[in-house]
Fold this sequence. Notes:
mainly alpha, globular
Amino acid sequence: MIGAIIGDTVGSRFEFRNHKNKDFELFTETCFVTDDSIMSLAVAKAIMETEKIKPSLIEGKELNQDYYKLLEKMSIKYMQKIGRQYPACGFGGMFYYWIFSNNPRAYNSYGNGAAMRISPVGFIARTESEARNLSRTVTSITHNHEEGIKGAEATVVAILMARNNNTIAEIKERINQDYYSLNFTIDEIRPTYRFNETCQETVPQAIQAFLESVSFEDALRNAISLGGDSDTLTAITGAIAEAYYGIPEALKTKALTYLDDYLSEIYFAWSEFLEKVNN
């Protein structure tokens, strides 16, 4: 998840002032965390709270329907609870209404928010079937349009494959086959690519930015150079790149300085939780 947070923070200052090349300073005093990081942390919190009641991932148990129902409930609870503390972090209009609703319901969205917050699922899923089920559970509480569900799932599958040491060519083949046509290069689309908040016009571009990279940092630079919804593009790209390359310690340390105490507490709890799940 730290890859998504780094990507979001780096991309934050470029969302409405696009930078169409790869030459820029990663972190400046004008960077900040947006809804991408905050909702990613909320999803992580929901997973951890679900595990406190039904410890399945930690204990190596199969996830059942009761687990998914509880995760759905916890996702709503903590996305609202955490989101309400950051009302000016960049929520879209419909999602803002959902965050503050007393009766939250899915609203058939296919916005790229489905994919920008999903990275915690990619880092705890043990199988592809589990990844898809977890992704759908977390996503469909708001983004229940099939394109929203697909965007989140494609991101999670790419993260899982990267964690499992699949090659870039193998990841590309899978995304091409089951999710999006990646018959373009970053250089080809850069001149005409514009801001777009849909999964269909964000997720494939973010994945391609990773596929053309040679390092974690290079993946972020590819994503920023596209323009568009920069913080979300780099959050998605960063999550996949983290799973594939790992994170340079200096970037991780710097990115964490942009989190306040409350968000930092969730992040460090998540890091400890991941160690328990993966050991």
